[in-house]
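Bench notes, bay 3.
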Amino acid sequence: SWVRLRINGHDLRSLTQDSLRAAIGIVPQDTVLFNDTLYYNIHYGRPGASREEVEAAARAAQLEDFIRQLREGYETRVGERGLKLSGGEKQRVAIARALLKNPAILIFDEATSALDSRTEKAIQAQIELAAEGRTALVIAHRLSTIMNADEIIVLDKGRIVERGRHAPLLAQGGAYAQMWLLQQQEEEAGSTPTDRDDEHPEGESFAAPAGGVA
């Protein structure tokens, strides 16, 4: 059967490609950075933004402390595809870029997967603040990043097998609860569940809040 997609009540097919792209900000798992400065790479999210807005986006992405430690600050060049930055630093630049765009819809595709636990928690708090008043779609295998979502959608081989909030899904004892238990055990054992798709045959979990927390 066909599914009709609507954004803010409007049929997706009635929207222009330009208006749709303008309304969406994406933070992918593998961020593409330019061989230019940190400032340029963040500013790329909205070329007309002021320096104050760029710096505010960097703070929201927990990037400012790192930039302050650099001798050239925002003018530090990141190298080809950001090779001078760690994976976590690259992702924070991508998050800052998306926040600078200030879109109505934010899509985070494994956006915190390259971050250590402490940084992830700090950024997650900022993501939840950024999601207020807009729609945020969070694609994740690390379930701790979506536990506060308004709605969690669990996919298995491309099909929806469960949906709901965190606590009710745990109570059901289904696929989501099994993934959650496995990840908690891995964390207690000191291993990291990130990027272990082969250990989670259920596939991905989506957090799809409507103008709430991500």
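Next record in the batch:
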Amino acid sequence: MFGAAGSAKLAHAAGLHGIQLLAVLAILADAGRLPSRRAATMLALASLGYAAAFGAVTATAYAGRAPYDATAPWWIVLAAGVLTTGAAAVLVLAQASPARRTPAPGPPTRKTPFAGRTGR
């Protein structure tokens, strides 16, 4: 199935960890300050980038080449995929922290006879 140097271990690892990465990005995008349309766009961009990187790694393995012995076109596809996924991840992470909210002024609290006493 594979050539002399080809191994599916790297392609297998890249695919499984890609699923984990995209799931974490989806959770962070949902919890952050990104509008839902922008979050969906960032996740689609990250998915396309990861698909390109995964495709390059898998094609190299099925061609019977060692993981670092890819041809120039596959290196370009791999680099484009990694850069695209990384850029989308950076944009999601930049907006991942929830917006700081100041508590809304509520009704005044009920005063108790012991409020304000320090115990001295």
